[in-house]
Amino acid sequence: MKTKTFTTRAGKPLTFSALGTGTAPLGNLYAAIDEDTAQATLAAALTAGVTYFDTAPLYGFGLAERRLGTFLRRARPDALVSTKVGRLLALGERGPDAQPTQWFDVPNRDVRYDYSYDGVMRSFEFSLERMGRDRFDILYCHDIDVFTHKTQEAADARTAEFMDGGLKALMELRAAGLCDAIGLGVNAWEVCQFVGERADVDLFLLAGRYTLLEQEALKSFLPLCAQKGMGVVIGGPFNSGILATGAKAGAMYNYLPAPGAILERVARIEAVAGRHGVRLADAALAFPLAHPQVVSVIPGAVTPDEVGAAVTALSAKIPSDFWAELTVEGLLTEGAPIPG
């Protein structure tokens, strides 16, 4: 599998596999999977050449971190690993802040947002314990965006909390060698740009906002990353499902049933793909990786077969005429970097 080496602000090289593994599905998102299946899925990813794994306390309320930690200690302790800070887990029934709520057969935990200095330090320490690690390669501040906090006012307050406290904690952890890179893991490029303009961060994990369906991040955020040497990991390359399933009834977009406008746009992309003999999922995985600042793309997988399907998709040959027609049809931003 192809790799890309990214050099952090401090000069540390980090080597990413082009295809990474996101572990939200291994935290029983949308459906419960058993321990054997979770471990087999991680093993399949490693066998396929995946060496970058991303997780978070939110995913299964600690379950994904525990499962990944168990696997890596045994199979690949030197893999590149990222986790996230900003949520603390506590005993008790899940409250309204425990979003998304689609978790099954997970520990009985509630979630509390805390982007302060102390909250970030505590989150880091708890993740170390759950995963049985001494350090992490990458730490992302998780979900300080409007997508999570619902209003711009609430998101701005969380961002200010992070900038005033949690950012200092991440910078201290990086300076102490307890992580190599710091940044954000969010669902909106705008907050990435805000923080990237003001802070000495390395990486962003951007979910769903630079895909075959959406390229607004090309306007100003991705040029900023190029200017400042910041890297981007693309999560949610299928926009929560629709770029894998196509524009069918019940297709998911942003974790909810896709609205009509999205269904119509994806149907148009599918029509172009059909004329060129291209599978929609293949194009969706390939597209983000063409941007020079993108270091890895991380779809989630719940079975070894899904890992294999992603590896196969990433190796597909896609004709240049396909990308050209998408641009002509107004379905791809003119000037967007394209594979090949």
Kindly summarize this structure in a few lines:
This protein is of the alpha/beta class and 340 residues long. The protein has helices spanning 35-47, 63-75, 117-131, 146-149, 152-175, 189-198, 221-228, 242-245, 260-275, 280-289, 304-314, 320-328, and strands at residues 3-7, 13-17, 21-22, 52-54, 80-85, 87-91, 109-113, 138-142, 181-186, 203-207, 231-235, 252-253, 256-257, 294-298. The strands form 4 sheets. Strands 3-4-5-8-9-10-11-14 form an 8-stranded parallel beta sheet.
Walk me through the structure.
- This protein is α/β, with parallel strands linked by helices and 340 residues long.
- Helix content is 40%, strand content 18%.
- The longest helix is centred in the middle third of the chain and has 24 residues.
- 50% of the residues are buried.
- The model has no long low-confidence stretch (mean pLDDT 96).
Give the overall shape.
Answer: globular
Helix content: 40-55%
N to C succession of SSEs: EEEHEHEEEHEHHEHEHEHEEHHEHH
Number of helices: 12
**Mean of residue pLDDT?**
96
Compute the CA-based radius of gyration: 19 Å
Strand order of the largest sheet: 3-4-5-8-9-10-11-14
